[in-house]
Automatic annotation (TrEMBL), chains A, B:
Family that this chain belongs to: Belongs to the class-III pyridine nucleotide-disulfide oxidoreductase family.
One MF term in the entry's GO annotations: oxidoreductase activity
Gene3D superfamilies: FAD/NAD(P)-binding domain (3.50.50.60), Rhodanese-like domain (3.40.250.10)
Name the record gives this protein: FAD-dependent oxidoreductase
Cofactor dependence: FAD
Amino acid sequence: MKSSKHIVIVGGVAGGASAAARARRHSESARITLIERGPDVSFANCGLPYHIGGEITDRDDLAVQTPTSLRKLLALDVKTLTEVTAIHPDSGKVELKDLKTGECSTLDYDELILSPGASPIRPPLPGIDDPRVLTLRNLEDMDAIIRAARTVERVAVIGAGFIGLEVAEQLVHIGKRVSLVELQEQVLPQLDPEMARPLVEALKHKGVETILGDGIQSFGGSEEGLWTNLASGRSFEVDLVVLSIGVRPEGELARNAGLALGPRGHITVDGFQRTSAPSIYAVGDVCESPDPLAGGHAAVPLGGPANRQGRTAADHIFLGDKALPYPGSIGTAIVRVFDLAAGMTGLSEKRLKGADQSFESVVVNGPSHASYFPGAETITLKLIWSPDTGRVLGAQAIGKDGVDKRLDVIATAIRAGMTIDDLVHLELSYAPPFGSAKDVVNVAGFAAANIRDGLLLPIPTMKEAAGCQIIDVRPPETSRRLPAPGAKNIPLGELRERLGEIDKDRPVYTVCQMGKTSYFAARILANHGYDARSILGGAHHQIE
Amino acid sequence: MKSSKHIVIVGGVAGGASAAARARRHSESARITLIERGPDVSFANCGLPYHIGGEITDRDDLAVQTPTSLRKLLALDVKTLTEVTAIHPDSGKVELKDLKTGECSTLDYDELILSPGASPIRPPLPGIDDPRVLTLRNLEDMDAIIRAARTVERVAVIGAGFIGLEVAEQLVHIGKRVSLVELQEQVLPQLDPEMARPLVEALKHKGVETILGDGIQSFGGSEEGLWTNLASGRSFEVDLVVLSIGVRPEGELARNAGLALGPRGHITVDGFQRTSAPSIYAVGDVCESPDPLAGGHAAVPLGGPANRQGRTAADHIFLGDKALPYPGSIGTAIVRVFDLAAGMTGLSEKRLKGADQSFESVVVNGPSHASYFPGAETITLKLIWSPDTGRVLGAQAIGKDGVDKRLDVIATAIRAGMTIDDLVHLELSYAPPFGSAKDVVNVAGFAAANIRDGLLLPIPTMKEAAGCQIIDVRPPETSRRLPAPGAKNIPLGELRERLGEIDKDRPVYTVCQMGKTSYFAARILANHGYDARSILGGAHHQIE
Ligand SMILES: Cc1cc2nc3c(=O)[nH]c(=O)nc-3n(C[C@H](O)[C@H](O)[C@H](O)COP(=O)(O)OP(=O)(O)OC[C@H]3O[C@@H](n4cnc5c(N)ncnc54)[C@H](O)[C@@H]3O)c2cc1C
Ligand SMILES: Cc1cc2nc3c(=O)[nH]c(=O)nc-3n(C[C@H](O)[C@H](O)[C@H](O)COP(=O)(O)OP(=O)(O)OC[C@H]3O[C@@H](n4cnc5c(N)ncnc54)[C@H](O)[C@@H]3O)c2cc1C
Ligand SMILES: CC(C)(COP(=O)(O)OP(=O)(O)OC[C@H]1O[C@@H](n2cnc3c(N)ncnc32)[C@H](O)[C@@H]1OP(=O)(O)O)[C@@H](O)C(=O)NCCC(=O)NCCS
Ligand SMILES: CC(C)(COP(=O)(O)OP(=O)(O)OC[C@H]1O[C@@H](n2cnc3c(N)ncnc32)[C@H](O)[C@@H]1OP(=O)(O)O)[C@@H](O)C(=O)NCCC(=O)NCCS
């Protein structure tokens, strides 16, 4: 173990601070310098939206560590308000600029870890420089939004990804009138559209005006308000804009130093987070790692990966190739939008279609815990797998409770290379307040295996059934309350006696509320010789 | 696919009804007869305690299906209040007794599925037949307990396993004075003792008198009360006793029919739930399946396994060896005790010690979600793995929130054969309300790998450190409020400057609140040449 080396780290937050902490645990004699452009280190980026909305009341809670505490606890040389302006891989030097004094200097490194992160995209649109157009990355940005929001009423949030949704939610908490604009035809574009749809309902319910399939074109300012002009020609006036249309890796330093970059400007790294230059590592939002699911490299700009990549780089510095490599990110992410949680892990149908990879998918609904125990809420779970191997490729879930648990179970299964058959027999914790004897994850496995085995012939959504012979097997009351367009109601319990009412010469599609009894009905019909298919996911989220 | 066979199922609840349901989905023409000794089928056994305590308000909610609905939905021939009294494997017949009329008859089967469950143990103790000594297995038992509890105040619950704890909790809900007696020196004997300890605190806090390490010897009745006499000589008077000291498989039918049984009377089955007799399957609490972790066979009397085993038996009847075999149970279980949840998956330290298998373990504490976000609660997680392969063998967790999620993630990891290194890089869903960038499951993986790699030299509990040089690295206030016996307080931030105060010639043990900063301190000390070890899990649950 080399121990008196000088480790220089660029970026003092998730990836950088984690790398520094782990490095110090490997060695007390290493010199570790943490260089941060901003005034703060080790802050909880992910918590920023929640202080805007007052849910995290104390700003200090967001400072996980301070420069002082990092010096004290980790004996780091912390240089805040200092920017690294150039890297010289050949001579092992970085150039620094002290942003308080403007002074420049150089610093030798034995090992360099780059964790400069990614910055919010600000496209060069007319009016973008209006001081009322803000972005959110750090504590200062947050303070600016809080200050600006204090006295105004109308806010446009541009971009309905994870951060946009969180900001919109929190602005509603503090009584703002929020318009949410998204270029794609859905919110949370990381998800498949049908899985994100309930979020739009939730937003609407809370008074958020959601504008989909429209992009920002320009801003036009006056004293009274800021005109937000969309590509469709639509314009509306707000007092404040929060732009959250994605992030761009801070790869310029690396590019100028000649490091290998990916197509979107991320620093390409291997499993030990090594860049193309010797003794230079990159971690976090700035890098792209080998993609364990889709092949090639992928960037997943999230806190968990950044933290663990930072740890991996530090390990490799001290342990060499005996370190545990980072296995790549699979893209597990979640967001809370009012009382809903929605998230994903692994590959989406969208991405698989884009990559022309073969896949199968199913959507099931199930209760968050035993349905007979108070408080059970419906979880809608989409499972995506490879028809060739049965391996689970991805999952998406939405619901009021227990969404994170199901995503985490499937994220674990994906990491392990498990198949749909493995999900069938997962043995998950079950007592009435916590789960079900057949958890919705098991049920997703059942349904997937049933599709493969020809027991479940699925129709993805009600749309595909339009104009066909549809049998609605829900109780008559439900069927009347939420009619399924074009369907004839034959409750499941009467189906066997009323087979005569169904035309055997035409395909028959069954529908119910959750996708379960329609499957039961389709089994009955198929076993009686009908060409019967079941509409996945039922009326839940599809009718009304 | 044979389709006009007659499938006879003994037992109409979890395993039996699930088998019937799946069989019907395979075939409309099969004749399926469900025979149930009691008046009810398909009820939620697991919900019974919660109706006693009024948390499940409506008794009907516990009847997931009724004989009538099963006839209607699944076209089953349901015979309730009918007991199967003998099996004749050679002739393919069962003998029935109609419990209403006393009439006997025989029934031919092509395939027989046994799911008679397990009955509460009632040892032949003096006084055990007192009508105030009740057990809880079915709706009638529940009704009897509710009736008996209505007018009384003092209840003894004998046995502090999962059901005993649930019953005790629910009796407190309705204002009873509860004494809980357990033969072992801990509650929830399925867990390792240190992990179950906080439950005793929670019970005490709610006024439950918990008597450990003492067993029931006899009951002595009088009009005023029922004397409950323990092995220690201790006696106390109650009005009602609920006995929940475990269950015994209902294996007599199978034994009399010559089927192979295990040492404790369970019917031995293979992965397709086949018994030793042709065309006879056994599922649920009555059977023991191949044990995927410990080898041999194991019985796990829980709802999830029963349901999925029933499904497996039905699959094998229709698909033969193309059916997906049941992979054995790993023993994932959970219980809520007031505001705590506690559970386990896989093998415990106890069981591994009993089996003389080598293992390593670690206990870590971590927040249920981001600690800077309101509502985070500490989860204590114990991880057990094989030192030879690194494979995860088991886990136990306790806390107020998120315990089920962590158990389910690790249950999935165990099923997949994952190692401690795999836990390090699990990519779990993280947004502040749901998780942490380094989830406590990751941290358990970190700590386990650190132990293997010699970075974390653990002392299992504070007891083992007694009399040694202990450095308490918590802030002075915490250290004063909850003193660590025999420890010298040097807060982590001052450790490097105060190394001179620590005797380098003696081993030094570090302690903190959660087990994290003591690890940090031990790393500092070790890197300065001390023989330093960290006390796992910190003062949390250990001091006070
Ligand atoms: C509002 C918001 C909410 C989020 N919510 C979640 C969430 O819920 N879950 C989740 O998983 N992730 C979330 N993220 C993403 C997560 O915070 C990032 O993935 C993570 O912080 C990336 O870590 P990093 O170290 O790569 O970059 P950062 O944490 O951004 O740190 C990079 C630091 O480097 C500094 N820097 C850059 N260039 C230089 C230079 N040349 N010299 C010196 N310093 C430099 C920057 O000032 C910055 O402070 C959120 C992010 C934001 C902004
Ligand atoms: C109070 C309580 C709480 C529980 N809580 C949980 C929990 O939270 N989580 C969990 O996973 N598990 C729990 N369980 C366990 C779970 O209910 C069982 O594992 C599961 O029901 C076993 O299914 P089974 O089909 O094997 O037996 P059972 O569900 O018990 O069904 C067997 C049926 O067979 C009938 N029978 C027996 N012999 C004959 C015969 N000769 N002829 C005809 N009929 C016969 C019996 O009357 C009985 O109704 C709990 C059990 C109880 C009693
Ligand atoms: C604050 C910060 C510097 C801490 O880094 P860190 O010390 O590596 O991380 P943690 O405080 O989570 O502690 C994890 C370490 O403690 C150990 N640990 C934690 N709990 C433990 C326990 N109960 N027993 C033993 N070890 C434990 C872990 O094993 C790990 O050590 P290792 O890496 O040597 O294995 C860094 O996480 C940071 O800057 N965070 C804020 C920014 C951020 O993450 N943003 C994105 C998300 S909002
Ligand atoms: C009520 C009972 C008969 C139901 O049996 P079941 O029909 O097999 O079980 P479920 O109602 O959970 O439905 C599961 C089936 O629906 C399918 N399903 C569920 N949701 C679905 C959806 N949204 N889309 C498609 N299929 C779905 C599953 O794939 C499965 O079918 P399969 O076995 O053919 O693959 C049985 O579970 C029972 O008796 N339970 C009470 C007793 C008990 O379990 N006690 C212990 C726990 S308290």
